[in-house]
Design goal:
This protein is α/β, with parallel strands linked by helices. It folds into two domains: 165 residues, 2-Layer Sandwich (VC0802-like); 208 residues, 3-Layer(aba) Sandwich (Rossmann fold). Helix content is 41%, strand content 20%. It contains 14 helices and 15 strands. The strands form two sheets. Strands 1, 2, 3, 4, 5, 6, 7, 8 and 9 form a nine-stranded mixed sheet that branches. Strand 2 and strand 3 form a beta hairpin. Helix 3 packs across helix 4, helix 7 runs antiparallel to helix 8 and helix 8 crosses helix 14. Bound molecules: adenosine-5'-triphosphate and magnesium ion. The site of adenosine-5'-triphosphate has 21 residues, from helix 5, strand 11 and helix 12. Magnesium ion (MG) binds next to loops.
Amino acid sequence: MEQLFLIRYGELALKGENRDLFKKRLKNNIKIKLKGLRTEIYDKLSRLYIRCDWADKDRIAEVLSNTFGIVGYSETYKTAKNMDQIEQAVIRLCDKVRETNPGSRFRITVKRIDKNFELNSYQLASRLGNLILDHCSGLEVNLNNYDWEISCEIREAAYIYGPKMASQKGLPVGVQGRGLLLLSGGIDSPVAGYLMAKRGLAVSVVYFNTPPFTSDKALQKVKDLSRALFKFLPSMRLFVVPFTQTQLKIKEAVKRGEVTLVSRACMMSIASLLAVNNGFKCLVTGESLGQVASQTLESIHFTGSFAGLPVFRPLIGLDKEEIITVAKRIGTYDISILPYDDCCTVFAPVHPLIRPEFTSMRGIFDSIGILPVLNEAVSKTEMVVIKKTEPGF
Ligand code: ATP
Ligand code: MG
């Protein structure tokens, strides 16, 4: 009898020809996250399995919980297809499950893929159910209202497992290419990054840094947010753009009410250059329609026109409350609400332009001669590869 992890990957099963590619990517993503641990991942009949040193099981479970492309996983006993061994595994599992779930109602679920097995599904389920009833007193079978469940699958071997742990669903990160997320210190952009990663985008991040108007703590906050997002990604890079000169130039050259819009346009422009230079195929922002002056339809039309690549805005139709709910669930909210100013609050006008006229705003942008400043910001951008144990992170 052997103990291993059984992994279910729902959406992948639907992807026809791409399936092998997706499966390979998922396996690879898991492997990267488990680097340093002794593990072996193999696949069989629409499932992945991980053999490992069982002392590492909590660390592995943590990785599986945070991996896109996985629907769920279970700690599993694998045995030969003979009743003695299957029964031994069921008893062992039953004792283990009951340590954490004292409920008395249970059910047995059987899946018999190997039709040559000596018992049919019904016979096997009732035999295992009776075994548990004999083993522990005070229990009852309840197929609909159960406190816990033991599953037994007869495949090329027998697999016996208890609770099904939920994971992140979605697609394996990387199957939809690479994208660059504009990550501020706010609540929204980390959520946008998470949602795009869920659809298979390998997300890296760019932050526009404005020292001394923003502090080291603001930068640290962005690093902490990157780290929180990295939990869901096999790899990630952080680009820190020195944005102070750009911001000062904007402040001196345009009317106060136009500062935020022109600043956002510059961010789009710089992010596009960085993306092209580094092989990213799209940009991602945390914009949500109408949330602030720079996110009205007219504002988004203007700022978005400086992007040379597709821009994804996965929060566009969400309310703040909905965004906050996701931020709390994925562990970015508590970092985002730390009170360090970002450049937007420092330079924000009291009365920002809400409905810019496209052509005249483009004209203003072209007239201020800011392109050399933007190019310099790109050339001075610093890049950090985020790793599990990055010092200073
Ligand atoms: P967030 O909560 O993500 O900061 P927000 O509601 O504060 O969003 P804005 O400040 O208008 O909205 O920013 C809109 C989007 O522009 C952000 O979601 C982010 O993608 C990008 N952005 C804003 N400031 C920065 C910055 N300093 N560095 C990188 N991206 C930024
Ligand atoms: Mg913000």
